[in-house]
Design goal:
With 174 residues, the protein is mainly alpha-helical. The protein has six helices and no strands. Helix 4 runs antiparallel to helix 5.
């Protein structure tokens, strides 16, 4: 029972942080358009630490796209791209470098079609694959890798899996 509560709590916190970061990037006009740098996409590396990140990221993306006024195809396929990226990151979680690749690929391959057909953004799909991919490289590979490095030393305290709250001085949780 405690594991389920912990899983849901971690997913909810990740979703909330994703929404806050996306809204922040949206206010700065970085979260949409042909060139997108969503700070929240750096969180797509969190499946490296916990499987709860998968639903957390998908729900966070869904809510973010609704809150920021995205069109329905973007709400659906943007969320799907994030979900695919998160699942891919989970499968590659044993490698700190490769864990950052699936979100980049999923978004670079899916989002240009959304930009072209839902928003009518010109430039062609190949160019948009490059620009969306570049934004994802910044968000996921660069910022996401930094996030892994920052969280790695404290992962057992942040991403507990046994339902107990970790504390650096609590030797029972180590």
């Amino acid at each position: 029972m405690h594991k389920r509560i912990l899983f849901v709590t971690q997913a909810a916190v990740i979703a909330a942080v994703y929404v806050v970061l996306t809204v922040f990037a949206s206010v700065l006009n970085l979260a949409s358009g042909m060139i997108q740098v969503r700070f929240s996409e750096a969180l797509t590396v969190l499946p490296y630490f916990t499987p709860a990140a998968i639903p957390g990221l998908a729900i966070g993306c869904l809510l973010s796209n609704i809150i920021t006024g995205c069109m329905l195809p973007d709400i659906i396929f943007g969320t799907l791209a994030t979900l695919i990226g998160a699942v891919g990151s989970w499968y590659l979680r044993k490698n700190r470098i490769l864990v950052t690749v699936p979100p980049v690929l999923a978004n670079a391959l899916i989002i240009p079609f959304v930009l072209t057909y839902a928003y009518g953004i010109p430039g062609g799909i190949p160019l948009q694959m490059l620009t969306v991919g570049a934004g994802e490289v910044i968000s996921c590979m660069i910022i996401g890798s930094l996030l892994i490095n920052v969280l790695k030393p404290a992962q057992r305290y942040i991403f507990q899996r046994d339902g107990r709250i970790g504390h650096p001085f609590d030797t029972d949780c180590l």
